[in-house]
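Dear Dr. K.,

Following up on our conversation at the group meeting, I've run the structure prediction for Integrin alpha-6 from Balaenoptera musculus. I'm pasting the input sequence below exactly as I used it, so you can double-check it against your construct before we proceed with anything downstream. Let me know if the numbering doesn't match what you have in your notebook.
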Amino acid sequence: MNEGSLHLHVGPPSASAQGSGPLGPAHHQHLSLLTGSKRLSGSAPNGNHNSSASLQEDTRAGAARPAARLRVSPPRLPGQVRGGREGQRRVAPHRSRAGREGAGGGRARRGQGVGRAGAGPASSSLDKTPASLQRTTGSFSGRELPARGSGRAESATCPGGGAGRGGERRPRWPRRQRRGSLEPSPERRAAAQLPAPLPVRRPMAAAGRLWLLYLSAGLLPRLGAAFNLDTREDNVIEKTGDSGSLFGFSLAMHWQLQPEDKRLLLVGAPRAVALPLQKANRTGGLYSCDITSRGPCPRIEFDNDADPSSESKEDQWMGVTVQSQGPGGKVVTCAHRYEKRQHVNTKQESRDIFGRCYVLSQNLRIEDDMDGGDWSFCDGRLRGHEKFGSCQQGVAATFTKDFHYIAFGAPGTYNWKGIVRVEQKNNTFFDMNIFEDGPYEVGGETDHDESLVPVPANSYLGFSLDSGKGIVSKDEITFVSGAPRANHSGAVVLLKRDVKSAHLLPEHIFDGEGLASSFGYDVAVVDLNKDGWQDIVIGAPQYFDRSGEVGGAAYVYINQQGRWNNVKPIRLNGTKDSMFGIAVKNIGDINQDGYPDIAVGAPYDGKGKVFIYHGSANGINTKPTQILEGKSPFFGYSIAGNMDLDRNSYPDVAVGSLSDSVTIFRSRPVINIQQTITVTPNRIDLHQKMPCGAPSGICLKVKACFEYTAKPTGYNPSITIAGTLEAEKERRKSGLSSRVQFRNQGSEPKYTQELTLSRQKQKVCMEETLWLQENIRDKLRPIPITASVEIQEPSTRRRVNSLPEVLPILNSNEPKSVHTDVHFLKEGCGDDNVCNSNLKLEYKFCTREGNQDKFSYLPIQKGVPELVLKDQKDIALEITVTNSPSNPKNPTKDGDDAHEAKLIATFPDTLTYSAYRELRAFPEKQLSCVANQNGSQADCELGNPFKRNSSVTFYLILSTTEITFDTTDLDVNLKLETTSNQDNLASITATARVVIELLLSVSGVAKPSQVYFGGSVIGEQAMKSEEEVGSLIEYEFRVINLGKPLKNLGTATLNIQWPKEISNGKWLLYLVKVESKGLEKIACQPQKEINFLKLKEAHNSRKKREIAERQTDDGRKFSLFAERKYQTLNCSVNVNCVNIGCPLRGLDSKASVVLRSRLWNSTFLEEYSKMNYLDILVRASIDVTAATENIKLPNAGTQVRVTVFPSKTVAQYSGVPWWIILVAILAGILMLALLVFLLWKCGFFKRNKKDHYDATYHKAEIHAQPSDKERLTSDA
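The predicted structure tokens came back this morning:
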């Protein structure tokens, strides 16, 4: 096999064998999407043999030319293959399940074939086994599409010019040769009371998709234990055919009544080797399998000759479909690629892929006028693919369940629009040579009006078929036909007979969903809910949902009394790439519950699976009750059922694969076991002892009885069961010791005994004694006792009809166990042993101080507690429960012990249970509270029993972390429960109003807080960088949140009233940049106000501006003694402000917003040079957006002051008036004169005084000095 080429075992054997692929010459996508070795070429259709697009493959050298091309509208895709006498031959596409991925077709002068696959060229070497098939990818819009194939082969010229249109119309053949009776014989009427099998699954092309299976995790459950289809190896029957024959491609169950009673499985093998006289290599065939025989399935001999001058049976695919009419009825099987030839071995040779079907009598022989292979209604009609030259009759065929009609699908008719034809006869009319009823045909038996076909070209109407009464009308038969390529997604058409026109007219059309989903690939009619109206199941194996990893679907439409317009289907999904829905089948009521069941095949799910779904009163159980897994590849490609093959009164199921094998699963009878359990005494009195051998002196007699029923009522096998008694199972699972044990069974309270049920409704019982342990502490909770049963399999099994006996199985829909509770006698309940309690409940909402158990009641506002939520993480609900007599004067009326007293508290989404605190209880503490997993409910056990005159007060601690801005109220549902008698235990709703106080504060600072202006005036247009504007001022606003994070409560915004300009429009503060700390990336609005002039930012924002010290040009002076001038600039008086809103996203505990700005120096020089100083005020506040009005935000504003001074060059001093100078001089002289006068009066200027003072001073310091002699004497 050459790499890159498309090979499928269902194709031709080799180039030299003149083979062709099952769907045309190969299994390729019939949607113009080719990969691998396929090359698409097209030409405009013109009615001749070269008119349609073609798929070409070079097979002469074994080389493939890869190419891929997508067309939205499905073209006609013929294929080309070497072989035959001329080296080229036309082949019709097969309808194989194996090749339904793509369709092939050889190039033809006339017509195209339709197959179960897509369209595409054939492979030259298709002689591998299906297990080794290479699956090439063929996808349409990313999907793998199973389309039926089309094939067109080149051949000799048709007579009369050929071109696919001409050819003389063959005269109608004698009616007696052409038709026979479908009326049931008396013996098959008698047998028809049992349900007849429905039509077998029709296959679809398998090549054209990737053989590599992408197995997903699985959307459907894997069942650990099967239900009633026996999957044990020794009970599963396997039938195999010749390698490469596609044995199992189609299946049907057949009940033969004459000449002997046989239950058979009919198996189609469309690639089986030809019979000796058929003058071909592979023609396909039909096989009959007796499940009681261990030998191979014999081939049914018919169609065993051929006339090469007028026909070709090479790769005709006999057995592509097979159907049985029912008990004692006929069988139909078809070869949809059967060719009629004209002018063989001449230049005018032509071939038409008409297809044809054979009808066999109940003994699988040709016996009456209806039998034989003359069922080929396209023969003799206008040729060419635009008419009937490639009709491929037999892709689907079915009988109606009333034995009157046979229907054929011909999906290649009218340029692959497809048609359905119905023919009928009964014995009386046939003998009288009256043919009034039918035949009926879409488009008309004589009109041949393709405009009456209710689907567009390339739709493949007739690809699948089923029928029944009770679809649209209870009395009329409706035919259901699939068109899996209609409108690129597929459709299913409901057709009715019109007696006057002999037309089949559409009554309703179901449209598929999903591009290229192949909706309608298979159909099944079945009354799932047994309401008398037939429901419809439709397969769409190529449906795909990427989000759900869905690969294939089956749609279940539940009939609404014949009205389909508003029916919404139930969609069953398969796993990715599983082709789930390639086969859908009514398998009958396999579990005998009164509702038919269906099976859905998924051949590419692993090695293949079949999913069993049970019908029900509601329509269908969407969870599969059983999943059958195959051992051979592509298991589940075909399914048959609805017949009891092994004669045990339960329908069996057969599953075919593409690996030349068929598996038969036998249904196990379903047993319903009724169980009862009684305990004596039914109450435990701890004060009443008895001599029963128990250490505690208290014993219980436990008795369990069993009986079974089954269907049919005559089914009465002897069944061995294992009955089990078990006590306190759940208590022991939780690790607690059991309070009871069975006598002589050790400490584990479990007892098992084998019992034999010899027939239906025979009751058998088992009995054992249960001992109560000594010194048990839990004397209030009842003791649960369970009885369960299992069927015991015998060590050896007998054989029935040469088959191993199938053992019954318990009904999975019925409980396997029953249980009862044994209660203790209740104390504190008065003389009548009836407890009438009087539980009362009071509640109050509280706040909790930190983590301490100190609680304060909420304030009451308008009669409702009001919770002002600040930074507290939880609140408390104080609950007081009492149990006292309602009337102290009549204490026996109520107030008895409340057994199993419990409080159930259910919390809203905004509150979550955290803990409980029990502070006061009387007479003793016995409270316990347990919450569910998400904390939305808490169950508090108050006591068991909660004694008379008891009271308990406790607190439920509730987390408030889920409270949001939208929370306005808190509603807690409180309900008391007790097993004692009390009627007034209605639930109470504890309500509190919520007010959320945000602990947000904002503060601001300006750096620097004092700035100067001066220098020269610079115009706005002349400025290039921010440094030219004026002094730098940075405002920093710090936001601190001491409460709940804002992300849980709402959206907060810091609003800054920014003094942009003074009243005359001149700039005041120029905003350069806004930054944040502790927040996500901030985006303040309006963004245009930030660096409005797009000035170049300074590299060092902290660089101090140097103001030139030169005089202003206006020469204005500032007087030292003038009045000091001061002004405040704020938004409310003389400044135009703009609101800068900065969202505080991500604010947790604290954050800062920094606004970098410049003082507009020129404005101050022009407007405020006479001012001593000015104050500029900037105000900031926090605003919170919430949907409700229960938000409080105190103290959430601030203002920042910046003082502006003129520089020293602006504040110059002016000259002083002359008179002030004169007065100052005179005053100075006067003061000097006065000082001199005072000094003179004191004698400061008199000299004698000075000398006297100097002498006195010096005298005091002088004394006589000793002589030298005196000093020496004194030293001695």
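Two things stood out to me. The chain is about 5% helix and 35% strand. The longest helix spans residues 1218-1241.

Best regards,
J.T.
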